[in-house]
């Protein structure tokens, strides 16, 4: 029987590994947005509901770049002999299915939060209120956690650990992307 500290450490390592694919996808995505291919998608989904910053390109580009990053991490896992137990391995999944679903849900889960914020007249990207800043980093990650639990059948203890760890990791990733000039 594993102890709680061991389980939390193992879950945290799994979460970092899983979220690394999303971080890589976010970096790829920022370059993809600058290509002429994505220019037609650079328009708001619905300004009155979600504001001008929620664009079609994100709903399309993140699933694609996430699938690519998952495929690349699968190659890395094979090259280094990644242990599939107790760690989660991307090689256990179909990279296209996993990559597209997680990338799509990650961005789709932002829309309800944006809808509520537009009703409350909170400007897009407003980081002046720590509560809204935190919620902005919970929506996508909680949507992803639900997908992992309900569709991919990840263990519930991983989801519980993720409710605290994933928003914090996402905040860290956002700050890194800002420092790199990618956000």
From TrEMBL:
The keyword Lipid metabolism does not apply. The chain crosses the membrane at residues 15-35, 56-76, 88-109, 130-150, 156-174. It comes from the Bacteria. InterPro entries: CarS (IPR032690). It comes from Oxynema aestuarii AP17. Keywords: Membrane, Transmembrane, Transmembrane helix. This is CDP-archaeol synthase.
